[in-house]
């Protein structure tokens, strides 16, 4: 790993810019998906998004890496892509169609808990630290307060069933993340491109089954919707990925991991400021508890 330069150096400035890009861009994709799915159904939207993003990234990967994957590497990347993109990301697009985007971001913020729990149970068998366990418990406590099914239903304006969808997506994303470290994978950019394209194909298939007439919605897409779609492809997928990729190679892991609790804050703010999503005192308290739990999970990670 490269050593970070002194503050004020070009490398230090690039570090700050990449962190801000991951914080803001990935935090804003929740609202972007909500806007884009107002007309086009979630699975078709995700399929089209990652078809274009994956195709562009595949060209970039070929030009920069100049290495084609083996058959085994290709199949591994496709398998991971279905878990991460086809299921993990698309379930988020489905959830934000029915729920406030900021609250969905808080559900996704619990991802470190799923990764560490599944890793402990099925992969490394390494027990998480006490601090991590406290963070996991605190995070899920905050989520329970946020989506308490026993609360009065007249104060809730959205259904709760998308929570199950997001949880399934989180588990698939966690499994895919753990398999990336254990399967023969292509070079970095090419691998991500193949994952996006595999997830796109999977989303097209699911859309064909569960979203009849989805293609007929494309002519009705508003300029706002197309703008959101292009933002998700060019900024959310390409710029966001490039920034995160650079951080993964050049920044301390715990610094890079801070995106996990900054993204929900950005998503909540944008959902309130642009998407007109309400933030009540209970949402504020529960959100603070969830984010505190994620901070402890990150700090306690070995």
From TrEMBL:
The keyword Transmembrane applies. The chain crosses the membrane at residues 12-31, 43-62, 74-96, 102-123, 130-147, 159-180, 192-210, 230-247, 259-275, 281-299. GO terms for cellular component: membrane. Its main location: membrane. Keywords: Membrane, Transmembrane, Transmembrane helix. It comes from the Bacteria. It is a multi-pass membrane protein. It is found in: Membrane. Residues 16-147, 161-298 form the EamA domain. The keyword Transmembrane helix applies. Belongs to the EamA transporter family. This is Drug/metabolite transporter (DMT)-like permease. It comes from Chitinophaga niastensis.
């Amino acid at each position: 790993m490269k050593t970070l330069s002194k503050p004020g150096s070009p490398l230090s400035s690039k570090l700050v810019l990449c962190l801000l890009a991951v914080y803001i861009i990935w935090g804003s994709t929740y609202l972007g998906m909500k806007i884009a799915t107002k007309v086009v159904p979630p699975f078709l939207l995700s399929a089209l998004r990652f078809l274009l993003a994956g195709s562009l990234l595949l060209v970039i990967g070929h030009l920069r890496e100049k290495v084609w994957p083996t058959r085994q590497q290709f199949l591994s990347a496709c398998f991971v892509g279905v878990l991460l993109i086809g299921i993990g990301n698309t379930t988020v697009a489905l959830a934000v169609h029915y729920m406030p985007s900021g609250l969905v971001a808080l559900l996704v913020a619990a991802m470190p808990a799923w990764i560490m729990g599944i890793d402990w149970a099925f992969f490394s068998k390494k027990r998480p630290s006490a601090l991590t366990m406290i963070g996991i418990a605190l995070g899920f406590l905050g989520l329970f307060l946020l989506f308490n099914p026993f609360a009065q239903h007249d104060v809730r304006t959205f259904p709760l069933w998308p929570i199950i969808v997001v949880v399934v997506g989180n588990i698939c994303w966690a499994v895919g993340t753990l398999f990336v470290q254990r399967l023969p994978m292509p070079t970095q950019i090419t691998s991500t491109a193949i994952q996006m394209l595999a997830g796109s194909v999977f989303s097209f298939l699911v859309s064909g089954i569960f979203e009849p007439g989805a293609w007929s919605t494309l002519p009705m897409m508003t300029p706002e919707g197309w703008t959101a779609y292009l933002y998700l492809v060019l900024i959310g997928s390409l710029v966001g990925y490039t920034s995160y990729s650079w951080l993964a190679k050049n920044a301390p892991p715990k610094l890079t991991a801070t995106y996990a609790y900054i993204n929900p804050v950005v998503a909540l703010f944008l959902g309130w400021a642009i998407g007109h999503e309400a933030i009540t005192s209970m949402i504020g308290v529960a959100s603070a508890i969830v984010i505190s739990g994620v901070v402890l999970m990150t700090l306690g990670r070995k």
